[in-house]
Amino acid sequence: MTLRRFRQDLNNVTSWVLLIVTVATIVTGLIAHLWDLNGFTWHTTFGYVMIAAVVAHLLLNARQLFAYSAFRLRRGIRSALSKPRPTAARRAPVPTGKAATAKAVLLSRRGLIGIGLGATAGYALGHGVRPQPQLARGTDLGLVYHQWSAAPGMVDAVGALTSLGRQPPLYKAYDDSARLGLPRPVSAGGLPTEIAITRRRSVRSYGTTPMTVDELAKVLLLTGGLTTDGRRTHPSSGALYPIETYVVVHDVDGVAPGVYHYGVERHELHTIRTGDFRQYVVDKGLNQDFLGEGSAVIYLTMIFQRMRFKYGERSYRYGLIEAGHLGQNLYLAATSLGLGACAVGAYDDRGIDELLGIDGAEEVSVYLLSLGREA
After folding, report:
1. I want to staple 285 with a disulfide (CB 3.0 to 4.6 A). Which of 14, 120, 204, 291 is the partner?
2. pLDDT of 53-100, one tens digit each?
3. What is the DSSP letter of 287?
4. What are the start-end ranges of the H helices in the chain?
5. DSSP annotation of 216
């Protein structure tokens, strides 16, 4: 009798532990998803504890599970072989009086479950729904977006379970365009990292000596290309890489003037259009003349859906952060090679999007950097 009571107590404790760690695993999983916490050890720990609790629960209830399954199987076979017998209908006793009825409803299992679910839903709606930002006159929309995409509330966890579209390909294809394979640069040469960082500055005066295709290839590879082990040269949230790189070539030995897309996967240039676009670049760059005096201008664009399907409203934040990573890579690569670069954020978005051949809706330009040999 003592052993039986101990087994029942152990089974009860195991059931409660299983319930608690299951809820904890769900909550920590949602937290890890919403905040992109790949190394969130609490979720992993609760997951392992849940597995152990499930195994213990099954072992403690194995006899009842098999016995009940066998009972249901025998009864099903018996029912299939025998004719159904009419049974007298039995009515459950109905409590009399309003007080008895209300008490029965409140103390029933369904009543208690309903109260619990109602309380949980009320708490979630009261504390989890974010109020709509108030757009006062003169409000900075950037601040409004920042507040709106701040730390997710409880109700936003439901959004993690909804579909925001499919993940697009990681590499943009230009199957019908002419391709120019770029030389794979050697790793030797250039300034050490610490010197390149301390010497980095924005350069707006460029000489007349053109860059070489080898220099352009190395800058593109170090900015956002693939290394020999197949990794990118910059970090990306969720390894989704929403940033694409384009080059408007003005004066580079070995590359005709024109607009190109940098094919990261094969380290090559895809021809979008050829011709001299110096004046167009200057005009759409709000008359910043140095944009037409260097050897090339690097444009960074963002494909929203590469992150939107996973990160929703916070995708734009992560994409801009990644563009900054590439911009600093370009600065350091140019400085290390004795070149000059200057980042620009002020330009005519629609004009640049048209130049690059992108729609300005699903893919937009977010950053540009001039590049050339320093005067």
Report:
1. 291
2. 888 877 878 777 777 777 777 777 777 677 555 555 555 555 555 555
3. S
4. 2-34, 41-60, 62-81, 98-107, 109-128, 141-148, 156-159, 193-199, 213-224, 278-284, 305-311, 315-336, 349-356
5. H
